[in-house]
Here is the input.
Amino acid sequence: MPNMLSDGMAWLDGERRSHMSDWVSYQRGAVTHPTRATPSRSAFEVQDANGVIERWESRDFVISIIDLPFATPERGDRITETHGAVVLTYEVMAPRGMPVWQWDAFRTAVRIHTKLVGEV
Here is the structure.
């Protein structure tokens, strides 16, 4: 018997890729790949050793594993997106102790956490 939830998630991922994503450039070192990504955001609260709570918001990119240019995202990778004449560059990063990416429930896509590092 087929797994309806898994099949549904695969269908939903395909619909997200087709109707809710834009072209971005994913860069690691000197290698750049065009790929489709859905923009999103995450908010974190991290407490430091002194008890100070830091709020951290990231620009996330959801990328299907079939579109991911490398096996897994790595801290320091860059994602560039273009809005009209404005080019925004984001670096893959997350607050200390937090992962820079995470799987979706059925491992059909990854959510990559980034911060804006450049605008031209």
User: Anything to note?
Assistant: The mean pLDDT is 91.
